[in-house]
Structures are given as structure tokens and as C-alpha cells.
Design brief:
single chain, 250 residues, alpha/beta, 8-stranded mixed β-sheet, 9 helices, 8 strands, 44% helix, globular, binds S-adenosylmethionine
Length: 250
């Protein structure tokens, strides 16, 4: 996120800042097998404007700390929580995900949708492990190859963007090496990318450009987003977000 002002302006009005869906957040929660009536403590890391935080707040009797390093997103999240009458369940924390001020074993659940790549999957799951109670759950979505091989153009692109991209079996191995037992996994379906994320973004481009004087930097952002969308549309059978659900071991 090199130009935060413009990227915030593009993304903060959207329901979500990455691929996903309310039903898929709920599916991950079901696979996590948590007691929905218990007073769980949850950290939602890289929460954006609250796509997953608000689903969890609606479904659980939990105290949720929504963490993001962009205060503008957290301000929107707070307003949305008030609008849904769940604000008493949600606290926001403006902080980088690699400098979390949490106590050891403070949380029952660590949740993170479409965000852990910012510090890398392996570093994230290793560093965050200590904040979870033993038996606590990690629920994290991560860009994942969904086939064993893929066209070299695509392989090259992702190796440049995010060299940690891998198949699910490797990601599960990373979880196992870092103190977790995987208990569930599924792949985000196409509508999580197109209907829930890319199409609303595309529909906002004209207003975004108008608000920003159709300037060069704004146009470059739209161009980059359009290229990312084109790549997804061409190669969507090869990659998606995998949603990983794991239990912290002793
Ligand atoms: C792709 S968005 C996903 C947001 C949200 N979870 C969702 O699914 O809509 C990634 C989020 O991570 C946040 N982020 C990026 N780097 C971060 C960091 N180092 N620490 C905390 N948050 C970060 C961004 O501000 C953004 O809100």
C-alpha cells in the first residue's frame, strides 16, 4: 500500500477490502467448533472496515479486538458496529500486525481474513501462536494454489508478488510445524472474489476518479486493480484464498 491516501479513499467505502463473504466467515466459524454462547476473546487481525468482525459480533457472545494499521478503516468499522448494535462487543486497535501488544494466551480465537500475507503466512502463524490459549483456534485465509501445477506466466507473477504462495498441503505443514493441528480447510469460491469484492470495486472506479480529479496516481491505481482482476478472471481455476482452521497444541 504505497499511496495510503488514495488506497484508503478507494477501499474504505466498500463492505470488504479483500475476497471473502459473510457465509464463508460463518462456514469457517462452524468448522472452528467454538462454543457460540461462551464469552470468547477474539482478535481479528487486518480487520479492514470489519467484514469478518461484524459477522463474528453478530453470531457470538464475544469480545472482539479488531486490529488494523489504518485508523480510517477502523473508524468506519466502529460506525458500522454502532449501526448494527454490536459496538459493545467490538474494540478497535490501530497497530501493525507484527507489533501486537497482546499478553501471552490472551485469546480464544485469532481470526485473519486476507491479511496475513502482509507479514507472510509462516511468520504470522508462528508469531501469533503465543497470543492464543492452548486449545484456542486460528482461522486464517491465505492465497493458495488450488492445483498441483499452473501456467508459467501465472507462477512467475505470484512468485514476484508473494513467493510464499503454495498448495494447501504445504500450508498445513507450516501450521503443524508451528504448534497447531489443522482441523478444517476450504477454498473461497468465485463469488467471494467477483460478486463480493471485484465487481463492487469496479463499480466505484468512476466516483473514485472523480473525487480525485482523475489524477495520474488515481488512474494508476485503477489500472493496477483492473490488471489484478483480469489475472484472476483468466487464471481463477489455479488460485484462490484457502481458509485454514487450526487448533493450538500444548
Ligand atoms: C486485503 S485487506 C483485508 C481486510 C479485511 N480482513 C477483509 O477481508 O475485508 C488487508 C488489511 O490488512 C491491513 N494491513 C496491511 N498491513 C498491515 C499491518 N502490517 N498491520 C495491520 N494491518 C495491516 C490493511 O489495512 C487492510 O485493512
Amino acid at each position: 500500500m504505497e499511496d495510503y491516501h488514495l488506497l484508503i479513499d478507494l477501499h474504505k467505502r466498500a463492505n470488504r477490502q479483500g475476497p471473502g463473504g459473510d457465509a464463508e466467515t460463518e462456514e469457517a466459524l462452524s468448522l472452528a467448533l467454538v462454543d457460540r454462547a461462551a464469552p470468547l476473546k477474539i482478535a481479528d487481525i487486518g480487520s479492514g472496515t470489519g467484514a469478518s468482525t461484524l459477522v463474528l459480533a453478530r453470531l457470538l457472545e464475544a469480545q472482539i479486538t479488531a486490529v488494523d494499521f489504518l485508523q480510517d478503516f477502523l473508524d468506519v468499522l466502529k460506525e458500522r458496529a454502532e449501526g448494527m448494535a454490536v459496538s459493545e462487543k467490538v474494540t478497535t486497535l490501530c497497530c501493525s500486525m507484527d507489533k501486537l501488544p497482546f499478553r501471552d494466551e490472551a485469546y480464544d480465537v485469532i481470526w485473519s481474513e486476507g491479511a496475513i500475507y502482509n507479514i507472510g503466512f509462516e511468520k504470522g502463524v508462528r508469531d501469533w501462536n503465543r497470543y492464543l490459549k492452548v486449545g484456542g483456534r486460528l482461522v486464517v485465509s491465505e492465497i493458495t494454489w488450488i492445483t498441483a501445477s499452473r501456467p508459467s506466466e501465472l507462477q512467475k507473477y505470484w512468485e514476484g508478488e508473494y513467493p510464499e504462495i503454495d498448495v494447501a498441503s504445504s500450508k498445513m505443514g507450516v501450521l503443524e510445524k508451528n504448534g497447531y493441528s489443522p482441523i478444517g480447510y476450504f477454498v473461497l469460491p468465485e463469488h467471494c472474489w467477483l460478486a463480493n469484492y471485484y465487481r463492487p470495486m469496479q463499480n466505484s472506479f468512476t466516483d473514485f476518479l472523480n473525487r480525485n480529479g482523475n489524477g495520474e496516481d488515481a488512474r494508476a491505481i485503477v489500472e493496477a486493480e483492473n490488471q489484478e482482476i483480469e489475472l484472476y478472471e483468466k487464471y481463477k481455476t489455479y488460485y484462490s484464498y484457502g481458509v485454514y482452521i487450526a487448533r493450538k497444541l500444548d
